[in-house]
From TrEMBL:
Listed transmembrane segments: none
Record flagged with keyword Lipid biosynthesis: no
Gene3D superfamilies on file: BEACH domain, Pleckstrin-homology domain (PH domain)/Phosphotyrosine-binding domain (PTB), YVTN repeat-like/Quinoprotein amine dehydrogenase
UniProt repeat feature WD, residue ranges: 501-531, 550-591, 592-633, 673-708
Composition skew (Low complexity), residue ranges: 372-386
Keywords, sorted A to Z: Repeat, WD repeat
Start and end residues of each stretch annotated as Disordered: 370-393
Protein's UniProt name: Protein FAN Factor associated with neutral sphingomyelinase activation
Domain BEACH-type PH positions: 1-85
Entry keyword annotation includes Plastid: no
Length: 708
């Protein structure tokens, strides 16, 4: 059993009801018992850079576990882990770094909570001082009388290691580490003196080297030759006792004659409680929220190792990294003990959680940005243009959307109609909701009257399947794409085909329309962008369409989508590749291979920060638009064919014919609703998210209403 600086030997026994640990030394408790039904989380841990640890939590608090066990070999550890995991498989939800990232990005986790989760996933534990949770210094001002959190100079540059600014040119690498048992106890000596005495062979460190002042400690991190430690979670908690000498310890006399007592606080904090309160406020500030991902890149992410670490001057001793040495391969027992001791006492780099740049958090500043006219506008600016200029209306809409989606499980069928002879492929609705149009593989476009509850018209444009349809903004024209390589325009008032656009060499799979521009995707591996003349709303003659761009792909394009502002286009191909385009320059912004096989459907989140895709590999992927990083991946039990989503939850149509309500923050299905007898192949949702229409391979069109 692992405790700070101590490993207690003993026996482990597990039954159908409990986990037992019997210490073999003079531990106060003869037997430690943990009821399995109380367990909330279990984690495999590395101890001494070896996969030997197992930590068990019986509360939701990730900071302190109920027991930390270290086994002699990985096989024994894994056997106990899988036994408990099997017992708990229906009671716990396993989170990944990507799922926590999505929750943090969307504001469901605070910076403090997110850092705790990352530390936990990176094998950091309060029971193991060599892998104690690590938190960043976030402030650089410890001398002012007032703390100005609106001034960027108040904060540390989180994109660089703590000591970087004080290095001579060129910046050198490090002979120590930012987190080690000595550094942890340096901060905690006033509440854990026995651990410091154990580490220091029965005595405290020299008084002038003790934790005397927060400002001086920060200064030493910038200027000292060997001091560049980061902070620990206690600096952002609520218990200030580690800053106060409440135990009246004799910690020595400094060279200036004063005794070491309470930690000297910055002038802007009147007492230790106020310091913690302001320090936590700084951690959750907008500046830190916008830059925390840079520090995560250094400590947990892609700048932790390799060429990116070298470029960021973030390289530490090889023994601090997982995989740096195999202690089990060292035959000399003395050398093995010496190596293990160095690993445990020198400090260990956290497990690497991310290998690509970490996305930035979505903060209020993004919602106030306006689109730049420059072709080279950053993605964060382009994707933010969908936000309303009226912030109060925007907040109301966002809150309303959250409330509606919270009740999406109450979706009830109103009516169903079988008006096609083959699978339904697309659904479009007039602005007033009076007429519903659907396309099908039976090559027809059909109009259904909501008032009469019966279909009114049936149009056939060719003898090949229609693949999708959309309603133009005028509410008078339906556009249909076909497997015969053409796009057809149907006039609702005149009840006839108005025009045909022949623009591809293979089937047209899907279309988008924005500001008189038509985007057509095809299995000929292209997307074509067409400009429609401003007076075309009445006639839509072919001559009024001008080809603006042709976007090449390496495989057939199966699905496309625009963000709400029309500034970004996303395409999904048959080879599983997602490409994000800038619609002003038609430049490729991101290209990511996400799926094994065809991508069925994809769409931007309402804030344009993420793209959700579903594919033939039964996976659901969430991609961060700014970085191109897959921040969430779910392997479902069946293919998801189509969906509507709000950025956090998704209503998906499954291969089985059911509607599945997914919570993408926990990657779980919260509700399964029977809908069709075959795969759900088309879905439409109104702007209020209260009405849904689905179409399926069973040829049925089902109308749904949200019952709040």
């Amino acid at each position: 059993m692992v405790l700070p600086l101590v490993c207690n030997p003993g026996h482990v026994c597990i039954t159908d009801e409990s986990l037992y640990f019997q210490p073999l030394n003079g531990y106060p408790e003869q037997v430690i018992q943990i009821k399995l039904h109380r367990v909330r989380r279990i984690y495999k841990r590395r101890h001494g850079l070896r996969p030997l640890g197992l930590e068990v939590f019986c509360t939701e608090n990730d900071f302190c576990s109920d027991i930390y066990l270290k086994f002699y070999n990985t096989a024994d550890r894994d056997e106990v882990y899988y036994y408990i995991a099997t017992f708990l498989e229906n009671h716990i939800t396993e989170h990944t770094a990507e799922s926590y990232m999505l929750q943090w990005q969307r504001g469901h986790l605070s910076n403090y909570q997110y850092l705790l989760h990352l530390n936990n996933l990176a094998d950091r534990s309060c029971n193991d001082l060599s892998q104690y949770p690590v938190f960043p210094w976030v402030l650089a001002d410890y001398s002012s009388a007032q703390l100005d959190m609106t001034n960027a100079a108040t904060f540390r540059d989180l994109s660089k290691p703590a000591r970087y600014r004080g290095m001579p040119e060129p910046p050198f690498m490090y002979g120590s580490h930012y987190s080690s048992p000595g550094y942890v106890l340096f901060y905690l000596v006033r509440v854990a003196p026995e651990h410091m005495l154990c580490l220091q062979n029965g005595r405290y460190d020299h008084a002038d080297r003790m934790f005397n002042s927060i400002g001086e400690t920060w200064k030493n991190c910038l200027e000292g030759a060997t001091d560049f430690k980061e902070l620990i979670p206690e600096f952002y908690g609520t218990d200030a006792s580690f800053l106060e000498n409440k135990l009246s310890l004799d910690l020595g006399r400094k060279q200036n004659g004063s005794f070491v007592c309470d930690v000297v606080l910055p002038p802007w904090a009147s007492d230790s409680s106020e310091f913690l309160q302001k320090h936590r406020t700084a951690l959750e500030s907008q500046y830190v929220s916008e830059h925390l991902h840079e520090w995560i890149d250094l400590v947990f992410g892609f700048k932790q190792r390799g060429s990116e670490a070298i470029a960021a001057h973030n390289v530490f001793h090889p023994l601090t990294y997982e995989g740096g040495i195999d202690c089990d391969s060292i035959e000399d027992p003395d050398q093995r003990i010496a190596m293990l001791t160095q690993i445990l006492e020198f400090g260990q780099t956290p497990k690497q959680l991310f290998t690509t740049p970490h996305p930035q958090r979505i903060t209020p500043r993004f919602h106030n940005m306006t689109r730049s006219s420059s072709i080279n506008s950053p993605i964060s600016e382009l994707s933010s243009a969908s936000q309303s200029k009226d912030s109060s209306f925007e907040d109301l809409t966002e809150e309303s959307r959250k409330l509606v989606w919270a009740n999406m499980g109450n979706l009830k069928p109103v009516s169903s109609h079988k008006i096609h002879k083959e699978a339904v492929t697309g659904i479009a609705v007039t602005r007033d909701g009076a007429a519903i149009f659907s396309t099908s593989q039976d090559s027809t476009l059909k109009m259904f009257s909501k008032e009469l509850k019966d279909f009114q018209r049936s149009m056939s444009f060719s003898n090949m399947a229609l693949s999708s349809c959309l309603m133009l903004a005028d509410g008078k024209t339906v556009v249909c794409s076909s497997w015969d390589n053409n796009v057809y325009f149907y006039s609702i008032p005149y009840g006839r085909r108005q025009d045909t656009l022949m623009g591809h060499d293979d089937a047209v799979s899907e279309m988008c329309w924005f500001d008189d521009r038509l985007y057509t995707a095809s299995w000929d591996s292209t997307i074509k962008v067409w400009q429609c003349a401003s007076d075309s709303s009445s006639s839509h003659k072919r001559s009024q369409f001008e080809l603006l761009a042709e976007l090449e792909h390496d495989a057939g394009v199966n699905t496309i989508g625009l963000n709400p502002a029309g500034t970004l286009l996303v395409s999904g191909c048959k080879d599983g590749t997602i490409t994000i385009w800038d619609t002003s320059s038609y430049a490729t912004l991101q290209q990511i291979h996400c799926h094994d096989g065809t991508i069925h459907h994809m769409a931007f989140s309402p804030d344009s920060r993420h793209v959700l895709s579903v594919g033939a590999d039964s996976c659901m992927k969430v991609v961060d638009v700014q970085t191109g990083m897959v921040i969430s991946s779910v392997s479902a039990e069946e293919e998801q064919r189509c969906f509507c989503w709000d950025g956090s939850s998704a209503l998906c149509g499954g291969q089985s014919g059911d509607l599945l309500l997914w919570d993408l923050l926990s990657n779980t299905v919260t509700k399964r609703i029977p809908a069709h007898s075959g795969a759900v192949t088309a879905m439409w949702m109104n702007d209020l998210c209260t009405t849904v229409i689905t179409g399926g391979e069973d040829r049925q069109t089902v109308f749904w209403k949200l019952q709040c």
